[in-house]
Design brief:
By secondary structure, the chain is α/β, with parallel strands linked by helices. It has 5 domains: about 120 residues, N Utilization Substance Protein A, Chain:P, domain 4 (2-Layer Sandwich), CATH 3.30.1480; about 70 residues, Beta Barrel (OB fold (Dihydrolipoamide Acetyltransferase, E2P)), CATH 2.40.50.140; about 130 residues, K homology (KH) domain (GMP Synthetase, Chain A, domain 3), CATH 3.30.300; about 210 residues, Alpha-D-Glucose-1,6-Bisphosphate, subunit A, domain 3 (Alpha-D-Glucose-1,6-Bisphosphate, Chain A, domain 3); about 80 residues, TATA-Binding Protein (2-Layer Sandwich). Helix content is about 35%, strand content about 25%. The longest helix has 28 residues. The model has no long low-confidence stretch (mean pLDDT about 85).
Length: about 750
């Protein structure tokens, strides 16, 4: 009987490629499972020996004086029938007679064996096709699904399986019938409960690349490279090619004799037109080639290193230059295609930070990007590291001032600045599309370095002309620092000690266990207020987890107030250099007052750092930021930076020879009130805001971000939520009572408009 089983297994191995040893293991598991199902009490002490000569099942039992559990115990007399040398406490293997298997047991064994065969087949299929991701396979159209998807039979012999060609990956102009042979590009091979799922495409740009690799020996050998592809599936594809050797014509190699090579690709793509141009290191030359056949009069790069060019073409050739569906323009926009990117990665001390950092780093490497990992680093530190290393971008792993359980990614461009709204939406669209092409193993990225940037950040802050370290040292400030147990606990005390301060550390261990709500608001800072009084300190410094927000506490434990962090720093900068300032619409009027006092002009931007930075560049601001304690000093970089804010503030405080409370009294006193009004989903919030703008048309109104109405003695800012039917109402006045009264008045007017 056993010989027949093994003969059948060898036949199974021959026909389906399932190893005999694998199936023997599954059969023994099945027999054990079946026996356990028929015999209560038998657990992990049962095992099977299966050979061509015999099959035996054993139960390993302990030798005891008196048997209480027959499944696991045996008497000494019974044990010595198996092993004459057995002693009490020994383990002996007692053979089990398998003839007594019941119907249920036999069925269990059968199911396990069948499942084993299925798992083996699925495993082999997955292993076979996962290695073929991003390759071209030939298959036949098997059937059309009701939702428009196509099932393609790919592979041969034991390696054949069904692949899914989703309707979104099909070319609309192509028509197939069942049985047609078709070439497809393998996007992804997934594991699923029903076995491996192979996803294929006919629209992917890489399909064109792989087809040329098959038809053009120079491409497959590496002598010619396809550097960029712009494709409108079914209509036209435009590719840019580059030759590794001067004596090779890359376009001619792709075209072939009498167009044979490109013709074969066109035929496979059912007539899709194909344009081939020469790729160039010279961005202007490349753009001109990409826009062919249009007659390009001139191409001018807007500035050295800029990612924009000005192109002049005759009026009657504008549409020709753009190309159908914008194809020429898309190809031209792909600057440095194939370039290996370098990305800076850093994180705050959140508990999940290390885990997320590993995922981000691994993903970047898998995408072919090199990584500079700066480890525990502030948000402004990562921004500066991008600039210093001339990287292509950066990723900061932080949830800023949000609670410990949160984490997120802040994305930076090559200038070390946050992505614009349009760029952010583009990233989200790419993520949603999931149309990714990963490089082969020879082109994955590498970790260029793992080194801290914190010391360099401190050095650059101290080197600023308006940071007078010596003046600060002479004051011998005693400072209490609350860094909420994040990365600020590493950099802020070190910066202050470099400035000659005596530092009392509070929550400065970078454990990620936030000692309190991490947003530096007065209600969250009671501990440091008490510590300042207790330590008889000159001031307190508070930062959020990623150190882009900065708040000060005065020597008596009172709040200097986040809004006035920027006001004081701007006061100092403007005292040395007259210029413009920028903050967002919800920031205190005090900055405008101080700016005008120094002869400068104040400008307001929409809420958000990226908007503040854009406005600062537009008006040439010398200082800017947000009322949340964010200081942006362009002399260092365009980003909120608590380190530069602290250094400039202490310099000013040292020069003034004042205490914190004395300095605070020199600024206009404003009080802010923050409220919201909840509306019904049926109410048109935008219409409400337009009505409020109309009502106060005679006042100074700014609608760049909601509606802000500036009255002579106070102001109100109305902003709608993007996620819920509410209007946020921010007011500021010279007393809290006045600010609250203004908020109540405006809310009442909104309710009147909405009839609620």
């Amino acid at each position: 009987m056993n010989a027949e089983i093994f003969a059948a297994l060898r036949q199974l191995e021959k026909e389906r490629g399932i190893p005999v040893d694998y199936m023997v293991e599954k059969i023994t598991q099945a027999l054990v499972a079946a026996y356990k199902k028929d015999r209560d009490g038998y657990t992990d002490n049962v095992y099977v020996e299966l050979t061509e000569d015999a099959m035996r099942m054993y139960a390993q039992k302990e030798v005891v004086d008196e048997v209480i559990t027959p499944a696991t115990e045996v008497t000494l007399d019974a044990a010595r029938k198996v092993d004459p040398h057995a002693q009490l406490g020994d383990l002996v293997n007692v053979e089990i007679k398998t003839q007594a298997f019941g119907r249920i047991a036999a069925q269990t064994a059968k199911q396990v064996i069948i499942q084993g065969i299925r798992e083996a087949e699925r495993g082999m299929i997955f292993e076979s096709f996962s290695s073929k991701e991003h390759e071209i396979l030939t298959g036949s159209v098997l059937r059309f699904e009701p939702n428009g998807d196509m099932t393609i039979r790919i592979g041969q012999g034991t390696d054949k399986t069904d692949a899914l060609l989703p309707v979104g990956e099909q070319v609309k102009t192509e028509h197939f019938v069942e049985g047609d042979m078709i070439r497809v590009y393998v996007i992804e091979v997934r594991r699923s409960s029903r076995g491996p799922q192979v996803m294929v495409s006919r629209t992917h740009p890489a399909l064109v690349k792989r087809l040329f690799e098959l038809e053009v020996p120079e491409i497959s050998s590496g002598a010619v490279e396809i550097r960029s592809i712009a494709r409108e599936p079914g209509s036209r594809t435009k590719i840019a090619v580059h030759a590794a050797e001067e004596n090779i014509d890359p376009v001619g190699a792709c075209v072939g004799a009498r167009g044979a090579r490109v013709g074969a690709v066109v035929e496979e793509l059912q007539g899709e037109k194909m344009d081939i141009v020469v790729w160039s290191e010279d961005i202007c030359q490349f753009v001109a080639s990409a826009l062919s056949p249009a007659d390009v009069i001139s191409v001018t790069q807007l500035q050295q290193g800029a990612k924009a060019c000005r192109v002049i073409v005759p009026d009657d050739q504008l549409s020709l230059a753009i190309g159908k569906e914008g194809q020429n323009a898309r190809l031209a926009a792909r600057r440095n295609p194939g370039k290996k990117l370098t990305i800076v990665v850093g994180r705050d001390a959140r508990i999940s930070g290390g885990m997320v950092a590993d995922l981000v780093e691994g993903t970047l490497l898998a995408c072919g990007a090199d990584v500079i990992n700066v480890g525990l680093c502030t948000t402004p530190g990562v921004e500066m590291a991008v600039i210093t290393h001339k990287a292509d971008g950066g990723i900061i792993i932080t949830a800023s001032h949000n609670p410990r359980q949160w984490n997120a990614l802040k994305l930076l461009n090559a200038d070390g600045e946050f992505l614009s709204d349009a760029e952010g939406k583009r990233v989200l669209a790419l993520a949603e599309d999931e149309n990714f092409v990963f490089p082969d193993v020879d082109h994955i990225g590498k970790v260029v370095s793992r080194e801290s940037y914190n010391d360099e950040h401190i050095r650059r802050v101290l080197a600023l002309p308006l940071v007078d370290a010596e003046a600060v040292r002479k004051r011998h400030f005693k400072v209490v620092v609350d860094a909420v147990n994040s990365v600020g606990g590493i950099v802020i005390p070190k910066l202050l000690r470099e400035l000659g301060c005596e530092v009392v550390e509070l929550n400065c261990e970078p454990t990620g266990e936030f000692a309190h709500n991490p947003e530096p608001l007065p209600e969250n800072l009671t501990e440091i207020s008490k510590a300042i009084v207790r330590e008889q300190a000159d001031l307190g410094v508070v930062v959020d987890p990623d150190v882009d927000r900065l708040a000060f506490v005065s020597e008596d434990g009172s709040m200097f107030v986040e809004e006035y962090t920027l006001v004081a720093v701007a006061d100092y900068i403007l005292s040395r250099k007259t210029g413009n300032t920028v903050s967002n619409l919800s920031s205190s009027r005090a900055l405008s007052d101080v700016t005008q006092m120094h002869g400068g002009e104040y400008f307001a931007s929409a809420v958000g750092e990226v908007n503040v930075v854009a406005k600062m560049k537009e008006v040439g601001a010398v200082i800017g930021g947000e009322g949340n304690g964010g200081v942006i000093y362009p002399e260092l970089h365009y980003g909120r930076d608590a380190l530069v804010g602290a250094a400039l503030f202490l310099t000013y405080l040292a020069e003034k020879g004042m205490t914190m409370t004395e300095l605070r009294k020199t600024y206009p006193a404003y009080f802010a009130s923050k409220n919201k009004i909840e509306l019904t989903p049926a109410i048109d919030v935008d219409k409400v805001l337009r009505e409020m703008k109309s009502r106060y048309a005679n006042e100074k109104v700014n609608d760049a971000d909601g509606v802000k109405i500036d009255f002579p003695e106070n102001w109100v800012h109305l902003r709608k939520s993007n996620t819920e039917p509410i209007i946020r109402v921010y007011t500021e006045a010279k007393t809290m009572a006045e600010a609250d009264a203004l908020a109540r008045r405006i809310i009442a007017e909104i309710k009147q408009i909405c009839n609620i």
